[in-house]
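Lecture notes, part 5. Sequence design as translation. It can be helpful to think of inverse folding as translation between two languages: the language of shapes and the language of residues. The source text, in structure tokens, appears below.
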């Protein structure tokens, strides 16, 4: 939601649709860039979403900060956390993943990368 919320484009009127749109844009971007991308959501999307170039993950149980906790779990479980870049604007999540060796990229900058304004 950090990436979606980084641009005030009315996403809050249709949160589910905004998630689907972001996943579709990330999938196209990752395929074009050859990037390894995992999207971590608080809960599975309401609508089925297919993606060929990215992985879609979600927290085991939706709750406040559950997606952040899942991101931390994934970073901690990776044998090379120093090769991971977490996209977030959340200060606490930034500290948690940096403590594990991951890098952080600002959400707004990443959104502009994968979804440039026309």
């Amino acid at each position: 939601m950090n990436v979606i919320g980084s641009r005030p484009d009315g996403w809050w009127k249709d949160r589910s649709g905004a998630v689907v749109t972001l996943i579709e844009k990330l999938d196209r971007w990752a395929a074009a860039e050859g990037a390894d991308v995992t999207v971590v959501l608080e809960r599975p999307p309401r609508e089925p979403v297919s993606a060929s170039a990215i992985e879609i993950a979600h927290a085991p149980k939706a709750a406040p900060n559950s997606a952040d906790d899942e991101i931390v779990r994934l970073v901690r479980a990776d044998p090379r956390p120093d090769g991971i870049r977490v996209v977030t604007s959340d200060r606490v999540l930034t500290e948690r993943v940096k403590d594990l060796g991951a890098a952080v990229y600002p959400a707004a900058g990443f959104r502009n990368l994968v979804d440039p304004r026309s």
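The translated text above is only one of many valid answers, since several sequences can fold into similar shapes. The first strand starts at residue 37 and ends at 41.
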